[in-house]
Specification:
Layout: H1 3-14, H2 20-26, H3 32-64, H4 68-87, H5 91-95, H6 98-105, H7 111-120, H8 123-134, H9 139-161, H10 163-203
Helix pairs in contact: 1-8, 1-9, 1-10, 2-10, 3-7, 3-8, 3-9, 4-8, 4-10
Family: Belongs to the UPF0056 (MarC) family.
GO cellular component, one term: plasma membrane
Pfam families: MarC
Length: 204
């Protein structure tokens, strides 16, 4: 398993920088302690979603009789759609609906829904982690995958904690540029997933 590739892919997919505008909007009425609590909960929830997907994702697929090759094709298409929207600097609309955003504004806690799910860790993230977990051959590789989830949770924590300064420093243009670059990475990964899945299904 290529550790650096997995880390960069998941980081680009989660794209905590692209979540900054929505985060600032959702926490605009919260007090500083509440914002810190939201950041802590969202970062932990992100790591938990990644870890659970890595450890139990394949079991869930077997229950529903879904092959990894089918997931690669379906997940690849989903990633390409997300990448296309990210390339157009539309990450928020790609993951949340206006109804979800409005409902979130009325909740006392928005850390898990919609901030973590689906804004940070949506179906594309879960399917990607499951695909990578299928390539694991040793227990320590699975441990590395879980650790990557923990590290990304830490990156989410740091990014959201500094959301205000980052937003002021980079501006909307800077955030859009970072989002487009991550979208380009995801588009390339989506093509790879689809190609591998199609080859596997064709040879079956």
């Amino acid at each position: 398993m290529e550790t650096l590739k997995v880390f960069i892919t998941l980081l680009a997919l989660i794209n905590p920088f692209g979540a900054i505008p929505m985060f600032l909007s959702l926490t605009a009425t919260q007090t500083p302690p509440q914002v810190r609590g939201t950041v802590n909960t969202a970062s932990i929830a992100t790591a938990v979603v990644l870890g659970v997907s890595a450890l139990f994702g394949q079991t869930l697929l077997s229950v529903f009789g879904i092959s990894i090759a089918s997931l690669q094709v379906g997940g690849g298409i989903l990633l390409f759609v997300l990448a296309f929207r990210m390339f157009n600097a539309e990450p928020t609309r790609a993951r949340t609906t206006p109804e979800e955003a409005h409902e979130a504004a009325e909740r006392s806690s928005i850390a898990v829904v919609p901030l973590t799910i689906p804004l940070l860790t949506g179906p594309g993230t879960v399917s990607t982690v499951i695909i990578y977990s299928e390539r694991v051959q040793h227990w320590w590789e699975m441990l590395i995958l879980v650790v990557i989830g923990l590290v990304i949770g830490g990156v989410v924590w740091g990014t959201l904690r500094l959301a205000g300064p980052i937003s002021r420093l980079a501006g909307q243009t800077g955030l859009n540029i970072m989002t487009r670059l991550m979208g380009l990475v995801l588009a390339a990964l989506a093509v790879e997933f689809i190609a591998v899945g199609v080859r596997t299904l064709a040879s079956a």
